[in-house]
Amino acid sequence: MNAPATHGICTNLPSACSHAATRTPVPMSTPETRCPECQARLLPAAATTPAAATRGLAPWVIATALALLAAALLVGWLLMRPGNRAAPAKPAAAASTLQRAGTVAGSGDVVPQLAPGTQTLRVHGSNTVGAALAPALLESFLRQQGYTEVTTQPGARLEERVMRAANADGTARVEVQLHAHGTATAFTDLAAGTADVGMASRPIKKDELAATQALGDLSSAGSEHVIALDGLAVVVNPANPVQRLSIEQLRRVFSGQVTNWAEVGGTSGPIVVHARDDKSGTYDTFKSLVLGKDALVGTARRHEDSTALSDAVALDPQAIGFIGLPYVRNASAVSVSDGAAVPLRPSHFTVATEDYALSRRLYLYVGREAPELARRFVTYAASDEAQRIADAQGFIGQLPDASEPGAAAVAVADLPPAYRALTDGGRRLSVNLRFVAGAEGLDNKARRDMGRIVRLLERRLKQDERVMLLGFSDALGGDCANQRLSQQRATAVATELATYGVRPAVVHGFGSAAPIASNETGAGRERNRRVEVWLTSKAVAQPEAVKCASPVAAAASR
């Protein structure tokens, strides 16, 4: 009897898990052991070698198998001869077979194409994602997979549609059921087994993780995919003289504590509040970032559709509302400030770096046992090609770019002299790297951003330019602890970049200096914990490390 395998190979897609990409053997304590990184199934290592696969089999069994294989190859050759190309195929057996593999241009992600067969893909959740971005991504994905005929028609209810695709000869078909009733429905439908992919305009909550635990850890790298960035725009009528508001002013306006425009610097008149509905991830994000524990004013006019909300605000001189950045349309977006940072409007750069106070990430979620078509789609949706589609749809793709020299320093007045000296005349990349809460490890978005940064450097790094990594923490804890933590995180990014052959000239932590958000809220502290990536043509030297009188452990909660 063969001994049980002690190691296994991760079966996830290579782009979704480093263990799968490198085929690194993972220890297996039991046959049910899963990949520690993405929770995908493990293929026992013994099963990956021909010797292990045939060990212990009788010679006549092996001979019979070889004979059957030879016969199958002969039949296949005969059917593929010129005179037999029109012979009917057997579609039922082909539905789960991979026909060929294709590489998404510029992404490095291998997305296998599908063999003939009829399949169904159920994509449910956020209206922000589902209204325009998801249909565009799905159509591009299906065409990349070889489906030439793609049509879309309304579904049974509002915010629902059905996409149908077929290949050139009609032997392979796909039906996509796209339901965009709000982020909350992504997780209820995933938990109920009525959706294959969940669309969300906020990260999954703890109670939703618990409700979907049968699908695996949906916050893991293999299940959570950031597909674009979005700025939550606060909009007013174009004739409104109010053009900048703080987070605190927004909280008081939308909770009903301020009811007249004169109280926030406008022309006297009643404030008419518009808001998205309770199922909307846009509303969830606004409640988290702005309202906090306060309730939305009861007189707010609620909308299921972002376009309808924007158009209503644009027609009413007294109105104010919040929507995703692509839906500003004829309304006017105001500048928003948080804490010590200066007011910023939502723009491609301020949202890409997440410096803008109301920036957010857009997600797709998929369970570990999801159909292969679903897993291929979410992998494609995070690829470089898909990021360009996100840009075209008015969202912010995640392909980093370099600013013009001196044009993108952190927008705060009190910057450390060393920071000013290093960044003066430099180019900042349009990405901030962030970390798993309470750990030094990069979060899911940052891990994928590392490859994007390297590809940008290969294309855009000038001959005399050097890379600088500048780390920051929030303001909790002492100065020494904060400086040490920011240095550790900058060093963690440098260590990861070194695996790509990139060795930064400066790796320095600035502690809690230069906050881009308030340190009074959890969301603000999360944005302040970051590593910026800069390019400089100047001769630079590593700043002197901050000396502390005694070692102070960094707070584990940060």
TrEMBL record:
<dbReference type="Pfam" id="PF12849">
    <property type="entry name" value="PBP_like_2"/>
</dbReference>
<keyword id="KW-0812">Transmembrane</keyword>
<dbReference type="Pfam" id="PF00691">
    <property type="entry name" value="OmpA"/>
</dbReference>
<keyword id="KW-1133">Transmembrane helix</keyword>
<dbReference type="InterPro" id="IPR024370">
    <property type="entry name" value="PBP_domain"/>
</dbReference>
<dbReference type="InterPro" id="IPR050811">
    <property type="entry name" value="Phosphate_ABC_transporter"/>
</dbReference>
<dbReference type="InterPro" id="IPR036737">
    <property type="entry name" value="OmpA-like_sf"/>
</dbReference>
<keyword id="KW-0472">Membrane</keyword>
<keyword id="KW-0732">Signal</keyword>
<protein>
    <submittedName>
        <fullName>OmpA/MotB domain protein</fullName>
    </submittedName>
</protein>
<dbReference type="InterPro" id="IPR006665">
    <property type="entry name" value="OmpA-like"/>
</dbReference>
<feature type="domain" description="OmpA-like">
    <location>
        <begin position="422"/>
        <end position="539"/>
    </location>
</feature>
<feature type="signal peptide">
    <location>
        <begin position="1"/>
        <end position="20"/>
    </location>
</feature>
<feature type="transmembrane region" description="Helical">
    <location>
        <begin position="57"/>
        <end position="80"/>
    </location>
</feature>
<dbReference type="GO" id="GO:0016020">
    <property type="term" value="C:membrane"/>
</dbReference>
